[in-house]
Write a structure and sequence with these properties.
Elements lengths: L2 H20 L22 E7 L2 E7 L7 H10 L3 H5 L12 E6 L2 E6 L8 H13 L8 E6 L2 E7 L8
Helix pairs in contact: 2-4
Length: 163
Amino acid sequence: MTVHKRLRLRLLGVAAALLLACGCSISTTGPVRSGQPATGIEPGVRLYFLDQHGISLVIRPATRREDLQQTLNTLVAGPDQSEKRSGLYSTLPANGRIEATDTPGTVTLRLSWSASSLSAPAIQQLVCTAEDAPTMGPVPKIAIVSSDAPSAIQQECDLHRTG
């Protein structure tokens, strides 16, 4: 065996030993606890209020998500004190009511006030909140019905539009 072949074999042996010694850099500490597993949508109430920049999502902490009707009732009640202090507000009538009907693919919102009295941002508050609330299927189409708009007006949340 020539000197060069012996040197190559030694270098190859040293390289193999180094690779074995380095391993794959995964520690042998076992599993490490780091909190709860991901569950998808964050629990809580997802509401859309207005601020100086436009419409803004607020997630109020809760142990579970409210159903569609509860969510809309919470929206109509308006921002809480801490949300108001941070500049959030609503232009929905505080004394109004919404009756939500959820069928696969469509949520119908029956308003106790006239739809023509609502600003475009107020309509977006309703529509975005309804789209994010728990419903019977995928993100529904939103239909708004009121005394001055007995035929349903189809709306969608500008923030959720894909095209």
